[in-house]
Structures are given as structure tokens and as C-alpha cells.
Amino acid sequence: MTKNDDCLFCKIIDGKIPSTKVYEDEKMLVFKDIEPKAKVHLLAIAKDHFKLLSEMDGQQAELVKYMLTKIPQIAKENGCENGYRIVINQGADAGQTVFHLHLHILGGEQLGW
Ligand code: 5GP
Ligand code: ZN
């Protein structure tokens, strides 16, 4: 798995920065967003460091697919029984601030659009 020493989310994976983890396996980690934008706001990351959705290769796409298959159960177990929204911010105009690909999982309440 590729790691980047300067990456905030790689540091969270390594436990160098604390986080509230809700799910972890050999390929992915899910933890609570530090500044939640909904009642439930989780971040799902692959343990392989890559920056952008637009730059992913086939292997990284498999990791995203893997995360998408795991998220329904994780969301359900964390207060999103009635649905949730998955968001990926791609690049500056979308407001991406952390350049380690992550999926936002938002729910736990009725979301506005
Ligand atoms: P982006 O804007 O890149 O799509 O999302 C980055 C997210 O990471 C933001 O929602 C922000 O609140 C969250 N975040 C930034 N720093 C930390 C941190 O140190 N710990 C946790 N748990 N979340 C963080
Ligand atoms: Zn990283």
C-alpha cells in the first residue's frame, strides 16, 4: 500500500493523528469527520494513498468499488438506517482540502440538497 508521509489521512491510518474509527479492515478505514456537516458524517478512505478520483488507476478503482460495497452496512450500523449521501469532492472548485481520496458519508437526518 502506498503511503505519503505528508498526508493527513495517511497519518490517521497510521494512528499518528487520533481519530474516531468506526470501521477498519486491511483495505479501508472509516472514521468520523472532525467538522460534521450532517448529524452523521463519516469519511471512508482506502489505505492506499492516492490523491484524486480523476487520477485513479484500475487497481485504485477496485478499491473504490470495494469501499462502495462495504459502505451500506457501515452506514446502517452508524445511524443511517433511512439513507445517506455519498460525496467525493474532486479538486479545488469542489472544495477538496485533503488530497487523499475520501468518500464522505452523510446522513442520520433528512438532508437538504
Ligand atoms: P474535503 O473538503 O477534502 O472533501 O474533505 C476533507 C474533510 O476532512 C473535511 O470534511 C474535514 O472536516 C475533514 N478533516 C480535516 N481534518 C481532519 C482531521 O484531522 N480529522 C478528521 N476526523 N477529519 C478531518
Ligand atoms: Zn494519504
Distance between the termini: 36 Å
How much beta, percentage-wise?
15-25%
Poorly predicted regions: none
Main sheet record = 5 strands, antiparallel
The SSE order reads HEEEHEE
Strand order of the largest sheet: 1-2-3-5-4
Summarize the structure.
This protein is α+β, with helices and mostly antiparallel strands. Helix content is 24%, strand content 23%.
Describe the protein.
With 113 residues, the chain is of the alpha+beta class. The protein is 24% helix and 23% strand. The protein is built from two helices and five strands. It has helices spanning 8-14, 58-77; strands at 21-24, 28-32, 40-46, 84-87, 102-107. The protein has a five-stranded antiparallel sheet, with helices on one face. The longest helix has 20 residues, at 58-77. The radius of gyration is 13 Å and the shape is globular. It starts with 7 loop residues before the first helix and ends in a 6-residue tail after the last strand. The mean pLDDT is 97. The protein binds guanosine-5'-monophosphate (5GP) and zinc ion. Zinc ion is lined by residues 4, 7, 9-10, 49, 100.
Secondary structure blueprint with pairings:
Layout: H1 8-14, E1 21-24, E2 28-32, E3 40-46, H2 58-77, E4 84-87, E5 102-107
Antiparallel strand pairs: 1-2, 2-3, 3-5, 4-5
Bound molecules: guanosine-5'-monophosphate (5GP) and zinc ion.
Zinc ion binds next to α1.
